[in-house]
Structure prediction request, 268 residues.
Amino acid sequence: MASVVDPHSGLHFFELSHIWGHGTPSMPGHEDVSLKRGVKHAEHGVMTHRIRMVMHSSTHLNSPIHLIQNGEGVGELDIQKCFGVGAVIFVPKKKWELVTVSDLNSATPKVRSGDIVIIVTGWHTKYSDSLEYFGESPGLCIEAAEWLVEKGVKLVGVDTPQVDHPLATSLGPHRGGPLMKRLPKKYEDETGRDPKIDFPVWNGAHKLLLQAGIPTIENVGGDVAELAGKQALIHAYPWKWIEGDASVIRLVGILDPGGDYRIEPGNG
Prediction:
């Protein structure tokens, strides 16, 4: 497994984030990440950067206020939502397919109330500045989001650039779109279907989750395939940014193969 093993606890740590920085693939309509060295080693013997970016870059966590007026910001989230037992489920999907209730019901491990759910479709391997990754990825159907809300999960992550199907976002013909101008015609030419009819609701699945107070993570990546089908502890803390709509995060999965590690109560 592509993990780092702590020699004292025996815990295995898995990287579940994509690389962030100059050249990070950005959502159509978003500015690229821009970094500038304000001070350089050759000049002052120290280096600092200035950064300009959209926080919805690379592996990031979305708070309810992203789509819900007066919702919580990333810095207001209960920190317990960002750490805990996770069900990393493998739901392989092809171009433009939907993650359905049937997929979630049959996935392993079983999703339980209070879980962090990471949905692995296999699209993290396509992460790039491409029409394929952003415009042809799968997404959750509205009923799947309703199922997750009813289950009482506390956080949902996907290895795609958006929670919803791309034609249900502004990449398609919604809310000032299409931001990906070739996308609606490409969909219609290849499927013979009208995207406005197939996807009449803008960000329906994402809004349902955030309305229920369930933060979301997009662009899950790294070695997430190594954890697919397993339970793991998930670490997904954002910045303490009050009213922040999103935050880049370092997403980590933790396994205890020996089952021996326990956190001491600290009473001694």
